[in-house]
Amino acid sequence: MRIGANLTSTQFQRPALGVPQHPLRRNVPDAILGGVCAGLACRLGVRVQTIRLFFALSSLVFGVGAGGYLVLWLALRRDGEDEPIARRLEHGGRAFKTVLWSLAVVLVMLLALSNVNLYLLGPYAWSILLSGVGLVAVWRGASPAERTYLEGVVQAAPVLGAASARGWRAVVWRVGPATILIVVGLQILSRVGGVWGAAVPALLGGLVLIAGILIMLAPWWLENVRDLSRERRDRVRAEERATLVTHVHDSVLQTLTLIERSAGDRAEVIRLARAQERELRAWLFAPDLIGVVSRADGSFADQLHVLQHDVERDYGVRVDLVVVGDCPSDQRVRDLVAAAREAAVNAAKWSGEEQLSVYGEVEPHEISVYVRDAGIGFDPDAPAEDRQGLTHSIRDRINRLGGSSVVRSTLGEGSEVTLLLPREVASS
Amino acid sequence: MTRPRVFLVDDHELIRSGIKAEIADDVDIVGQADEVAAAIEMVIERRPEVVLLDVHMPDGGGLRVLREVRATCGDVRFLALSVSDAAEDVIAVVRAGANGYVTKNISGADLIDAIWRVRAGDAVFSPLLAGFVLEAFAGDPVLSDRDSSGDPDLDQLTARERQVLRLIARGYAYKQVAAELGISSKTVETHVSSVLRKLQLSNRYQLSNWANERKLT
């Protein structure tokens, strides 16, 4: 996690009605099951209840709605994930096979039923059983985050949740309603084709039957699920540990060896220890920064972190960096950071201090950077060759950008360079 | 003034001995602990004035020590020490009642200064903490849905408090802040303490969010 920069994006913004949103993703915060309806509602800019009603009603027509829902569930990406369940299934071999097998079993069952002229369930049998396969597919292909969410949904469902507990009370809770539901479901199904016609009772009977079976089997299923996710977690943990060991070996042990070898050279030991500390810290706390360090086209805050990293590495000083706010970078921001870099290098070279502070802040109308050291200082008006030249070049840079700079320094008390850059108001 | 009575909580032997070596001449170290349960028991028994508290420890970390000790004796003050730069760690311990937060690479002299300050009930803000606070209090106050405090003053920093925090974030020591703004050091202390109070009591969305994130892990 990066410090400072990610803090503004933590709020979820619910889109306004009537405003279509791109792209189409399964929604997370408003989801009940897979977030398909909520996602569609966002995409189309309509109320989520409308979409839900549509799916519910169309499910009455040979289960089209339920089937469509499952297809979308499989085909759409969940918000924040980079591939849809279907794609993930395709890559994960075993899960894919499970789904294929259950599909085959269902087809054989249906064929067998139609062979012995048992059109018990009519066309609903197809949609219900295929939906069952769809659910298996969703489960096998879901990301860990989505699995956890679905597990929560099942636990929170009134009867299912109670039924998954242990103890005799739970058994009663489970077996009682389950038996009743199964019997009622079979009863309804056995009357299909009678006075009522086929459609409604067949669907109702099928649903009741499935609910009964679900409740009966819930504990077994949940336990299975829990074992599976525990196994998965353990594996992830083992992998993390392996990466850590590799990293410690590659980087930390090497540096320690280097430190031992240069034990006599104080400056070198400090430089090595700091470089290693910075690297390890980035690796542990801000892994997303590692790529940035080599890329250098990240946001304002990213670029200041790169500056900190480089100056610490090259000059063996400590740079305390604090960034408040953030913005994407354009050429002006890059030039501002380049000027700040010059100021920091200047301070690192000439101040005689081993520590400097860099503070960057993004405000609505202005970006500011302060580079400060508590070193020997200098007289800003005296024509001292090296430092003076540098301050001039910083001033020129900032002036060209339409910003302003202030250099303050007191002999013996340190100096501070202030860089101010107004933001272009046109871009939001 | 007598020397502050300090208790040390850290699960790393090396860090403990390092800190002890640096501050032992200027404070009384009345005890040390390397695990959460022992720390809670010993701190309650010995009643130090200031506890130097490592944030990251197994079994609940510094946060648990802080909560359980403060439940029994409210007069023990805490200064959190950590190697982490993550906002949720910093904000969580301060909101739980720590008077300040410093990173472990702080110099011995600065640490002693911070201990004295915390003993006096003042707040210790590192540049990093000042930056977090500015970030959290930026823009309009956004209250979390469930519990709006009903006190809008708590959710906003005054212009002066902002100035003080900005200077601290820029690396100014309290004395330098005072000189820069033309006010007394005591006034700077007052501003910083008031910010600490707001930090602990405000229900701003980001603050409670940061604290919640910490609770989950």
Write the layout of secondary structure elements.
The complex is a heterodimer of chains A (428) and B (217).
Chain A (H helix, E strand, L loop, with lengths): L35 H9 L3 H13 L3 H12 L9 H7 L1 H23 L6 H20 L2 H13 L1 H6 L4 H23 L8 H63 L4 H20 L2 H8 L4 H16 L2 E7 L6 H20 L4 E8 L3 E8 L11 H17 L2 E7 L3 E9 L6
Parallel strand pairs in A: 1-2
Antiparallel strand pairs in A: 2-3, 3-5, 4-5
Helix pairs in contact in A: 1-2, 2-3, 3-6, 4-6, 5-6, 6-10, 9-10, 10-11, 11-13, 12-13, 13-14, 14-15
Chain B lengths: L4 E5 L3 H11 L4 E6 L2 H11 L3 E5 L6 H12 L4 E6 L4 H9 L4 E4 L4 H12 L4 E2 L1 H10 L22 H11 L4 H8 L3 H17 L3 H12 L1
Parallel strand pairs in B: 1-2, 1-3, 3-4, 4-5, 5-6
Helix pairs in contact in B: 2-3, 4-10, 6-7, 7-9, 8-9
Describe this structure in words.
- The complex is a heterodimer of chains A (428) and B (217).
- Chain A has helices at 36-44, 48-60, 64-75, 85-91, 93-115, 122-141, 144-156, 158-163, 168-190, 199-261, 266-285, 288-295, 300-315, 331-350, 385-401, and strands at 318-324, 355-362, 366-373, 404-410, 414-422.
- Chain A has 428 residues and is α+β, with helices and mostly antiparallel strands.
- Among the domains of chain A are: 12-156, no CATH class; 287-422, Histidine kinase-like ATPase, C-terminal domain (Heat Shock Protein 90, 2-Layer Sandwich), CATH 3.30.565.10.
- Chain A has a five-stranded mixed sheet, with helices on one face.
- Residues 1-12 of chain A have low confidence and may be disordered.
- In chain B, 52% of the residues lie in helices and 13% in strands.
- Chain B contains ten helices and six strands, in the order βαβαβαβαβαβααααα.
- The longest helix of chain B has 17 residues, at 185-201.
- Chain B folds into two domains: 5-121, 3-Layer(aba) Sandwich (Rossmann fold), CATH 3.40.50.2300; 131-216, Arc Repressor Mutant, subunit A (Orthogonal Bundle).
- A six-stranded parallel sheet of chain B has the order 2-1-3-4-5-6.
- The A-B interface holds A 1, 3-4, 7, 10-11, 281, 285, 318, 320, 322-325, 356-357, 359, 361, 370, 372, 374, 416 and B 83-87, 105, 127-128, 130-132, 134-136, 138, 142, 166, 169-172, 205-206, 209.
